[in-house]
Amino acid sequence: MPWFRNLIQISATTFKSQSSLKPIYTKPFVHPFTSQLLQFTTTTAAAADREKLPQEVKANTTRHAGLGPTKGDEKRRVVVLGSGWAGCRLIKDIDTKIYDVVCVSPRNHMVFTPLLASTCVGTLEFRSVAEPIGRIQPAISREPGSFYFLANSTGIDFHNHLVNCQTVTDGADTLEPWNFNIAYDKLVIAAGAEASTFGIKGVKEHAIFLREVHHAQEIRRKLLLNLMLSDVPGVSDEEKRRLLHCVVVGGGPTGVEFSGELSDFIMRDVRQRYAHAKDNIRVTLIEANEILSSFDDRLRVYATKQLIKSGVRLVRGIVKDVQPEKIVLSDGTDVPYGLLVWSTGVGPSPFVKSLDVPKSPGGRIGVDEWLRIPSVPDVFAIGDCCGFLESTGKPVLPALAQVAERQGKYLAKELNRIGKAGGGRANAATDIDLGAPFVYRHLGSMATIGRYKALVDLRQSKEAKGLSVAGFGSWFIWRSAYLTRVISWRNRFYVAINWLTTLIFGRDISRI
C-alpha cells in the first residue's frame, strides 16, 4: 500500500542520512540495460557552476543528450507524446512487462475536463480534476527504463525513429530550455489540439481558454478580482458594469456548462457575499448558431429556457474583433466585458501541422482503420490530433473525451498483442497480422446547465432514436456518471467531499 511504501522509504532515507556526514559526489545516472547516460545539455549557468567543481568530479558529471536506441536484451520502448485522455488511457493499459514507457508532455498530469468548469467558481478544488501521470502508470515512477519528461516535441525523424524534444521551463529566472532526442520502437502521437480562434484578431491576447487547470485558475482569479474591484470607491457605474460582465463565446457543452456554473455562483454566492455587486453582475453567452447543436432539439429548447431563467443572456452573433475591454460583433455591436472565456471548439496544433504526413479533412494527422500513420512505420496517432484518412471511407470523429479514451484503450491492446507476437521492436511488426480495426460507438452526451439540472442524450447520433432526458434526475445521472469516471479513488473522494462541502457551506470565494 502507498502509506507502507512511503514508511519504508522514509526509514531508508533516515538510515542513509545518519550513516555518513561526508558529502558524496555521485556519478550520473546510468541506464541499467543500455549503459547509456540519461543526461541533457548543460546550460550556461550550470556550466559555470561545474567549473568550480574538482577535476575528478567534473569527469563524472559529463552530460549527454537523450535516450538512444534499445538493445537486444532490453524491453521495447513506447514513446507517447501527450498526457490527455488518449495518451493517459494508453499509458494506463500498456503492458509494462513488454514495453518501457516514455511520456513526453508539457504537463505532468491528466485533466478530467468534464469537471474543469466547476473549478472556476469554487465548486471543486483544482487538484480534484488533475491526475498525476505517475499514479496513472506507476511504472513511470518505478521502472528504470520508463520516464516522464517535462518537454514539448519539436519534430520527429521518422526514418531514424527519433523524437526531437525541448524542455519546458517556467519563469524569468529559470533554466534556459534545451533540446534532446528520444529513440523509439513504437511512437504514439497523442498531442491533442488547440482552441480554434478562426483567425480573429485579439483572441489569444485577451480571451481565456478553458482547456487546462491553469486556465481555470486564471478565470477564477480574474472573476474574483473584478468582483472586489467593483466595490472600490472611485469606480464609475459604467466601469462597474463592464468589470462585472462575464462573456462566454461558444455554445457547445463547455461554454454552456461554464455559463451554468457561473450563473449558479452568482445566484447562490455572489448575491449573498457581494451585495453591492448583485445588480450589476451578469453573464452573456454568444453563439453563431444554436447552442448544444449536437443534442436533441427538445433538450436544446429546455437548456435555452433554463439558462435564460438563470439570468444568462443568449446572443446569436459572430465575433469580428476582440479588444482589451470589449468585443465587436459582425453587425457592429460592441459588447464590453470584464471576463472573456473563449470556447469555440478545437483545431490542429502547430506541431501537428508541421509533421510531414498525410492529413485528414480538417488538418488532423491522417490514420487508417488501425490508427496507424500508413506512410511511416511504427507510428500511431490517437485523440484530437488525428482523423481517418479519406481513403478509409470513415468520417472524422468528433474531438470528444470518450473518443480519445476509446482510441487509447484500443491501441494499448493492439500494442500489447504486437509485443507478445514479437513485433515490439522497431521495424519488426511488418509481418504480424493486424487485429480488428477500431470502431467507435457513441455512448451519448451529457451537460449540466446549472440549478441542479442537466441534459442526458443517449442517442448514438443526432439522427438516431434513443433516450433523451433533462431535469434534476439527469443532473443526478451526470454527477454519478462522472464521479465513477474519475480515474483514481483518491480523486473520487476529493470530488465527493468538494461537492458535499459546497452544498453545505457554499463556494469558497478566497482569491489565492
TrEMBL record:
Enzyme Commission numbers on file: 1.6.5.9
Localization per Swiss-Prot or TrEMBL: Mitochondrion inner membrane; Peroxisome
Topology within the bilayer: Peripheral membrane protein
Top enzyme class: oxidoreductase
Keywords: FAD, Flavoprotein, Membrane, Mitochondrion, Mitochondrion inner membrane, NAD, NADP, Oxidoreductase, Peroxisome, Transit peptide
Enzymatic reactions: a ubiquinone + NADH + H(+) = a ubiquinol + NAD(+); a quinone + NADH + H(+) = a quinol + NAD(+)
Names of required cofactors: FAD
Molecular function GO terms recorded: NADH dehydrogenase (quinone) (non-electrogenic) activity
Alphabetical list of SUPFAM superfamilies matching this protein: FAD/NAD(P)-binding domain
Domain FAD/NAD(P)-binding: 77-408
InterPro entries in alphabetical order: FAD/NAD-bd_sf (IPR036188), FAD/NAD-binding_dom (IPR023753), NDH-2 (IPR045024), NDH2-like_C (IPR054585)
Domain External alternative NADH-ubiquinone oxidoreductase-like C-terminal: 442-508
Location (main, coarse): mitochondrion
A Pfam family annotated for this UniProt entry: Pyr_redox_2
GO terms under cellular component: mitochondrial inner membrane; peroxisome
Biological role: Alternative NADH-ubiquinone oxidoreductase which catalyzes the oxidation of mitochondrial NADH does not translocate protons across the inner mitochondrial membrane.
Family: Belongs to the NADH dehydrogenase family.
PANTHER family per UniProt: NADH DEHYDROGENASE, NADH DEHYDROGENASE-RELATED
Protein name as catalogued: Internal alternative NAD(P)H-ubiquinone oxidoreductase A1, mitochondrial
